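pasting for the record
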Amino acid sequence: MTNKSHIVVDVDLVFKALADPTRRSLLDELFRQDGQTLGMLEERIEMTRFGVMKHLKVLEEAELVVTRRRGREKLHFLNPVPIRLVHDRWVSKYSEPWVAGLSEIKERLERTMEKVYEIYIHTTPEALWRAITDPEIRAKYNFGASVNSDWKVGSPMKMGVTGIGMELGEGEILEIDPPRRLVHTMQALWSDDVKAEGATRVSWDIVQVEDSCHLTVTHDQMREGANNEIYGGWPMILSGLKTWLETGELLTTPGSLMYA
């Protein structure tokens, strides 16, 4: 067995390799799935094959990536030893438990969560798009809250109950492709607890299926364990949307009565 204390690591090469975000992304990919070919890595990194090869060469020089031949394929493997040796150089055995504990806390705080909701609605993409973006229609199934925007990329979006002057949320339009896709940020404002959660992201994707629409709402960029008030209302909202589009009637839910 090799004693790692006798292994010489070129610290300059390690730091140079880790300094580039693309090379860190390559290491992340190998951490996720070790033993990938150049072609597999190229598919996951938005860069030419030559560019990926150059970055892999730097990682190999730093011994952060090692390669093995398997038949005609050249497989790339993550080698964490140099990183560990750099860690050991400046972190003593006494401080390591504290460092590990702080790292775990940081990772837990930065971990994100997403919620995905799917529903089929007997309607057209155009009618569904209008129901999502028209303030008056939106208020019929969105707890009485209308959503206002000029629906252009970079524009603000405001959500609130006009009758009582209550602001419930705000955001920014990130993507828009009527009547297929809408993406916006969402900062909830109805209580101090939800304000503390910060901005999240909501994506609406519409796909026509025969005489119906398949609507997928993805609510992500939430911290793990986020306040469920932020995302807990989606089943009621989408059920109300489906009911109104298919029957013209309002669906009575606990949420619909909130600001009545």
